[in-house]
# Entry
Amino acid sequence: RQIKWQKSLNENGNLKIGYSKISQELFWEILNKYQVDDKSEVYFATKNEEFRIHRKEGGVWMYDFTDVKRRKIIEFHGDMYHGNPKKYLPEDCPHPFRKNITAKDMWEKDKKKRELAEQNGFEIFVVWDSEYRWGNKKEVIKKCLDFLEIKK
# Structure
């Protein structure tokens, strides 16, 4: 019964492991501004898959939106899942499922992930969920396009 329930959540879009529906909305908006021939080297979850970089200690980091040709990555951070520093103190534990992880722990993990991408020649731009969801979506899209150097 549990397996059937889990499968139903995954297939019906109510549970997405590693990404949110709203992040994918943003990424499709961005992709629609690309020239047709530039789209093939762009990776994100609902287009093809998230781009991966292997870690020395084993495993991989997965990046939310990656333009391999331009060597640019956009990370879409959920406020609770990444401990938005505008909302949480370092000692807060905002993650809804991992209550023993502090915001500071999250920041250190994100820093390691960012550093690996930079070591591999990528630049990173971070969009916070609340900035896009509750802010000016057009302005966030513009910032992303400017970062990616996409002509509007």
About this structure: Residues 12-16 have pLDDT under 50 and may be disordered. The beta strands are 42-43, 51-54, 60-63, 65-67, 72-77, 123-128.
